[in-house]
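F.,

This is the one I mentioned.
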């Protein structure tokens, strides 16, 4: 199955989780529009986020309101911050946050740490055990055709693998748009099933019993924190 199933912690798309998902995209879309402009044609980061939001069935009015806030001159300020956590029995977690209040975020993360008896690590104490990569997934080309398209475009990647009838391309995060452009040149009507910049653990572990229960509690509580955007970990679930 390759590395794709381990890209990120899965999210239930119902009830409160839907609200969390909508809020997450609203903040990211606003931030991208504020930094790069509100034109989808001129702002590749914004277009990517809007396309992803639509795929995840985020309502158009939420997307449009986030962009319109920039057009109306609203001045909200969000900051990306990352936390690294040591969980039970050798498990590790990387938490990506987008916040307009660092004190609130730190307080909320520490509350989760205290409730789960885990340990907050220093910068790079966990992330060195992960690969920070972009992942692009699609259907319609073979591995050989994909490699040819990337070579023709002069794009370097770290790995290409197949997952059923899907192709997954892994590369440096800065290569995301170049990879997608190369594939689009070869396959003009391609739809990207995976379009992520992510952290993938170099080594995965299995948890059982109370360790697994404790780890699942950690993930559940993190998912309830308003400012948490993504959670990456090294546990096979």
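My design for it:
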């Amino acid at each position: 199955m390759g590395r794709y199933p381990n890209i990120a912690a899965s999210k239930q798309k119902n009830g409160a989780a839907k609200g969390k998902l909508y809020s997450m995209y609203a903040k990211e879309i606003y931030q991208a529009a504020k930094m790069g402009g509100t034109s989808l044609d001129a702002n590749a980061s914004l277009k990517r986020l809007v396309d992803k939001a639509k795929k995840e069935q985020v309502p158009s009015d939420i997307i449009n309101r986030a962009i319109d806030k920039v057009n109306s001159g609203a001045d909200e300020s969000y900051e990306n911050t990352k936390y690294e956590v040591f969980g039970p029995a050798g498990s590790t977690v990387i938490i990506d946050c987008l916040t307009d209040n660092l004190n609130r975020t730190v307080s909320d993360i520490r509350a989760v740490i205290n409730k789960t008896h885990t340990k907050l690590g220093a910068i790079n104490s966990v992330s060195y055990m992960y690969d920070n990569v972009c992942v692009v997934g699609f259907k319609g080309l073979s591995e050989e055709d994909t490699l040819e398209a990337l070579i023709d475009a002069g794009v370097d990647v770290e790995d290409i693998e197949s997952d059923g009838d899907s192709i997954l391309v892994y590369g440096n995060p800065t290569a995301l748009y170049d990879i997608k452009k190369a594939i689009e040149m070869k396959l003009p009507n391609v739809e990207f099933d995976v379009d992520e910049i992510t952290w993938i653990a170099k080594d995965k572990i299995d948890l059982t019993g109370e360790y697994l229960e404790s780890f699942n509690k950690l993930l559940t509580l993190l998912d309830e924190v308003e400012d948490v955007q993504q959670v990456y970990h090294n546990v096979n679930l």
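The two ends are 14 Å apart (CA to CA).

Talk soon.
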